[in-house]
Design a protein that fits this description.
The structure holds two protein chains of two kinds.
Chain A: E1 3-6, E2 10-12, E3 18-25, E4 34-39, E5 45-51, E6 58-60, E7 68-73, E8 78-83, E9 92-98, E10 109-110, E11 114-118
Parallel strand pairs in A: 2-11
Antiparallel strand pairs in A: 1-3, 3-8, 4-5, 4-9, 5-6, 7-8, 9-10, 9-11
Chain B: E1 9-12, E2 18-23, E3 33-37, E4 44-47, E5 61-66, E6 69-74, E7 83-90, E8 97-99, E9 103-107
Parallel strand pairs in B: 1-9
Antiparallel strand pairs in B: 2-6, 3-4, 3-7, 5-6, 7-8, 7-9
The chains are: A mainly beta, B mainly beta.
């Protein structure tokens, strides 16, 4: 079965960077897009970007461009997301999510989420 | 920036039908997807491509589309349906994914 296992909670200071990972199993890693979505406390879902694990191409939401980088490691079936210049507003639960049927827009499988806390 | 508009809240009594709408110009060209999120849990996709239901999602949950508005319908609402529901689509160019603000469904 499809499983997405995310790395553990992080606490960072403002201005720092955070790198989160999402390890996939139960399917052919390079056949499905992987997205990152975040949710601030008590707020809605916010799309951050997507990576094609096959070639590594990416597309980022405009509000994150310049401080987000998504990469993949096909040898470990892992997608990484690094966010830099952190501020308090980046405190959120970050999710990775895989597309459902090969349609890039479908977020059919989700990781368990990683809490990132940004505080001085 | 592109936005999907949902009502903040919908309330229904058990056994009634809940309808949650989502509106945006680009929905006339792009599919919509719906997610259910319960407190402390990751979202779960309940509808894809406007009206398709993933395996394991009950038949009383359905989706429809008309022009620039899509609707999530939950028939025979049960207490377990109380959750936040988010619509999601892409902008008209298909470049970016966007979520609606979410609708809190309360079962009275």
């Amino acid at each position: 079965q499809v499983q997405l296992v995310q790395s553990g909670a992080e606490v960072k200071k403002p201005g720092a960077s955070v790198k989160l990972s999402c390890e996939a199993s139960g399917y052919t890693f390079t056949n499905y897009y992987m997205h990152w979505v975040r949710q601030a406390p008590g707020q809605g879902l916010e799309w951050m970007g997507v990576i094609n694990p096959s070639g590594g191409s990416t597309s980022y939401a405009q509000q994150f461009q310049g401080r987000i980088t998504m990469t993949r490691d096909t040898s470990t079936s892992t997608v990484n997301m690094e966010l830099s210049s952190l501020r308090s507003e980046d405190t959120a639960v970050y999710y990775c999510a895989r597309d459902h049927t090969g349609d890039v827009y479908e977020l059919g499988y989700w990781g368990q989420g990683t809490l990132v806390t940004v505080s001085s | 920036s592109y936005e999907l508009t949902q009502p903040p809240s919908v309330s229904v009594s058990p056994g009634q039908t809940a309808r949650i709408t989502c509106s945006a110009d680009a929905l006339a060209k792009q599919y919509a997807y719906w997610y259910q999120q319960k407190p402390g849990q990751a979202p779960v996709m309940v509808i894809y491509r406007d009206s398709e239901r993933p395996s394991g999602i009950p038949e009383r949950i359905s989706g429809s589309s008309s022009g620039t508005t899509v609707t999530l319908t939950i028939s025979g609402v049960q207490a377990e349906d109380e959750a936040d529901y988010y619509c999601q689509s892409a902008d008209s160019s298909g470049t970016y994914v966007v979520f609606g603000g979410g609708t809190k469904l309360t079962v009275l």
